[in-house]
Amino acid sequence: MKAIKKIFGLLLAALLLTAAFSAAALAAGNTNNDRMNMYTNSDFIEKEQPELSGKTKELISRYQKDPTMENYLNLRDEVIKNYNAVLDRKETKLEELKEETAGKPGGDEIVSEMEDIVQEMYITYWNRINSSMLRFTDPRLLKWKISDASRYEYIPVMGAGESIYVKRTPVTNAEYAEFLADTGYPVPANWKNGTYPVQEEDLPVNFVSYEDAQAYCTWLTEQDGVNAYRLPNESEWELAAGHMPKDADFNCGINDGRTPVEQYAEVTRGAHGAVDFWGNVWEWTSTERTGADDTTILGVKGGSWKSARTDCRSEYREEGRDASSGYEDVGFRVIQVLNGEEPEQKAELAALAFPTVSAVSAGDTVTLSWEPVEKAIEYQIFEYYEETGLLYMLDRTSETSVTISNLKEGAACRYIVQPISYIEIADNVSPENSVAVTAAFLLENQS
Question: What are the residue ranges of CATH 3.90.1580.10 in the chain?
Answer without folding.
Answer: 144-340
